[in-house]
Amino acid sequence: MNLQTDVCIVGGGPAGALLGYLLAEKGIETIVVERTSGTEREFRGEHINAETEAILKEHHLFDKIEALGLLKMKKVEYIYGSHIVKTITPTQDDHVGIHIPQPHFLTAVSNEAARFPNYRLLLNTSVTGLVQDENGNFSGVRAKQHGQEINISSSIVVGTDGRFSTVRKLAGISATEETHGYDVLWAKIPAPADWEPSTKMVLANGHQLALFTQTGGMIQIGWNIEKGTFNTLRKQSLEVFLQPLLTSFPELETIVRQHIQSWKNFVCLNVFSSNADTWAENGLVIIGDAAHTMTPTAAIGINCAIKDAHVLAPILEQALLDGDISKSRLKEFEIGRRTEIEQQQEMQFQKEESFKDNFLEVVGR
Ligand SMILES: Cc1cc2nc3c(=O)[nH]c(=O)nc-3n(C[C@H](O)[C@H](O)[C@H](O)COP(=O)(O)OP(=O)(O)OC[C@H]3O[C@@H](n4cnc5c(N)ncnc54)[C@H](O)[C@@H]3O)c2cc1C
């Protein structure tokens, strides 16, 4: 099958879905290519901040997502043992973060985009190759859908295909990767009926243990563990590993024992951050985790990806109107975003290093 479009977006995560909608709304021919069926994506960040809330409201998407379900966090607590060391409550907003299940975000945004005849979403379709014209400019992608080859010609290719970006690799763009000394073990349990929507940060055995209340009455739990130690850890006692959680939250004991019965109930996230050497080539841009992978710290990855799409859309619109899709023109996006992203990556390092300082009052130096 051969298709033609103005912009081909590779990856229908938060960055790709929003960009697809924003371009389609402007009347630009847009194809979003997503390798999953759209509903069984791997677990990703789901907490948005007030800036992202404002972006979604500006594009009239927030109420559509809210109609599907979201949850506003009422406080952030820092806990040591059974002692609440510090509580942060909302100042200007009515929340300290909002949980949006990614299926709700992606469904609402792609439903809105689907209203435009110039928008097309190809699910179960993996991009396997990039196409370049005789001058070396990127001019489309090759993809596979249920074994069938699809060739998509496009004026611009946007890589929004996440932390292991195929587009970035195929375009020959290298990235500087940094490990942060830890990985995260994730598990999910139902929340007790009276559990207030909150983020709870515990200092447990010198590491961060975080509990995020989720829409639909669940709690997502993330244990920071020393990098690369999951295989060793899983040979040890699960009971001992769970003890700090149960000490801080004895009210969760029954639920934890029902839902975390073996190491198989955990998903291990290989934590790293990365920054690509360039975010633009002739006819190609990479954004979101594909350009700059964030760690889970401070839950900003999805927010950065959404802001990237928000910033890039008008730049692409004007570039297409001007007929200039050169690297230097598309670099406008990178020039506008790189400094802030690098500051946020630096902030993630600082927060990781200073996490224990939140507990000085009870732990000392
Ligand atoms: C386990 C985990 C927990 C996290 N927790 C948080 C958090 O609490 N808060 C937060 O803000 N951030 C968090 N992050 C980071 C956040 O999820 C990412 O920064 C964000 O999802 C980036 O969005 P994206 O659209 O750039 O990429 P992704 O969300 O990774 O989306 C990329 C999409 O591209 C598709 N794709 C990949 N390759 C291809 C291909 N070849 N062809 C077609 N499609 C392809 C994938 O299926 C996927 O749908 C977390 C990340 C992980 C991994």
Radius of gyration: 21 Å
Beta-strand residue fraction: 25-35%
Mean pLDDT: 94
Q: Count the helices. How many?
A: 11
By secondary-structure content and strand pairing, the structural class works out as alpha+beta
The major pleated sheet works out as: 8 strands, mixed
State the distance separating the first and last CA atoms: 64 Å
What do you see in this structure?
By secondary structure, the chain is an alpha+beta fold. The chain contains 11 helices and 20 strands. It has helices at residues 14-25, 50-58, 62-68, 102-113, 166-170, 230-233, 238-248, 253-259, 301-322, 327-353, 360-363, and strands at residues 2-10, 30-33, 47-48, 71-72, 75-80, 83-88, 98-99, 119-122, 125-132, 138-145, 148-159, 175-179, 182-190, 198-204, 207-214, 218-226, 267-269, 272-276, 280-281, 284-286. The strands form 4 sheets. Strands 1, 2, 8, 9, 10, 11, 19 and 20 form an 8-stranded mixed β-sheet that branches. A 7-stranded mixed β-sheet has the order 6-5-14-15-16-13-17. Strands 3-7-4 form a 3-stranded antiparallel β-sheet. Strand 10 and strand 11 form a beta hairpin. Helix 1 packs parallel to helix 9 and helix 9 runs antiparallel to helix 10 (327-353). The longest helix has 27 residues, at 327-353. The radius of gyration is 21 Å and the shape is elongated. The mean pLDDT is 94. The chain binds flavin-adenine dinucleotide. Residues 10-16, 33-36, 41, 43-45, 47, 126-127, 160-163, 166, 269, 288-290, 294, 296, 299-303, 305 line the site of flavin-adenine dinucleotide.
